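Tutorial handout. Part one gives the primary structure; part two gives the three-dimensional structure as tokens.
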Amino acid sequence: MFYILFLIATATRLMPHPPNLVCVGAIGLFAGCYLRGRTAWLLPIGAMLASDVIGHVLRLPGMGFYNPAVFCMVYAGIAASALIGRGLAKNRTAARIGGAAVASSIVFFLASNLGVWFAGQYPPTVAGLIACYTMAIPFLTNTLIGNLLYSAVLFGTYEFSQSQWPARLTRLVSKQPALQPAFARKS
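Part two.
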């Protein structure tokens, strides 16, 4: 499962997509909830790093290595998603998962844009910080959409696969008489 999630997170960053509408934050929530130890935060960080390396080599716009202050804060925001996901481990409801996706999006927004401000892309004043966050609101919208959508898919698929439905479907199918061609039937 670890490797599949890693590939999914990396691929969504490499495929054409609107800015910040990727599943790395949702993968972080999922990993924090279901994986233990360092694996929980290494999964989203590793996927980010792998996609940044590939993006750098392929010269994909918006990917690769950039200002160290921004880079560190982006990665801190992604790592925070795994920490937020830890809070879901004992009680996973749709409302809590949705709330965690929103919280993860906001933490990422605050951290990554603080890095942009630290990097000097806006004046080092309170007005510059406010301008930085204001200009980044469209990115927050995409981050929210991505985290909510991908969290619903990841958690929903996993919870369904763990529920009684797959076993019931298997039993239902196995109770059906096998289909035989008409010439093979004995009357």
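Part three, for discussion. Residues 179-183 have pLDDT under 50 and may be disordered. Helices lie at 2-14, 24-34, 39-58, 68-86, 94-118, 126-135, 137-162, 165-175.
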